[in-house]
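Dear colleagues,

As part of the handover before I leave the project, I'm documenting each prediction I ran so the next person doesn't have to rerun anything. This entry is a single chain, and its sequence is reproduced below.
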Amino acid sequence: MTVLGHRIPMMASLLLWALAWEVVGRLGLVLLFPPFSEVVAALFTVVPTQSFLDAAVITVLSFVLGMALAIAVGVPLGALMGRFTAVDQFAGMWVNLFVSAPLSALVPVIMLLFGMGTATVVVTVFLFAVWIIALDTRAGIRHVPPSLVEMAHSFGATRWQTASRILLLAALPEILAGIRVGLIRGVKGVVVGQLLVSIIGFGALFELYSRNFLMAEFWALTLVLFAFALLLSGLVSRLEHRIAYYAGVRQS
């Protein structure tokens, strides 16, 4: 970022927001926002507690299971949509519908089907993430030149070899982009699921802090989730850059 000819680190925007938050908190303009310094101090109070560690284990487990299912379903579904027109016409409408639909409204229905427990959160994470992964995988498969597939066939490659060694590798940048966005949506899904269930994981802690008006602890927990989402996104983004050369294959 460049301002008046001077290069400003991107971290400066976070420092600016933190400063604004501190000022608003100190002036007492909004009761729900304590000073940022109090929120940071609350981090060191909340994180070492056993309740936080127990909630973190439940939350991470639900997130990992939900994302694993989303990737296991989304990538093959997107590949089939990108490869076969009939599958794309049949599933494309539903995938686009769920991408744009307010999925939070479905959580009460999921609770009726799967109960007030971890299964509901896992399904919520899955529903938040799987559709964008499928769409990006479809886009990646669609961008693979037919000449690459024809070359594989001319060398006697089987359908499985063509799919795994040509199509998926050439579409890997888009697949990873979908997974990166899916991870962020999955974090949203695990929070929404646990907030509505309100008896497990971080949802129970959010309910506890808000009910007792412990806003410093509430925002400290929120910062933990934001940092978790940014960390996952950054890791996948770095992986995208490391395999970016696969995108050049499509131009050959």
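The two ends are 34 Å apart (CA to CA). The chain has twelve helices and two strands.

All the best with the project,
I.
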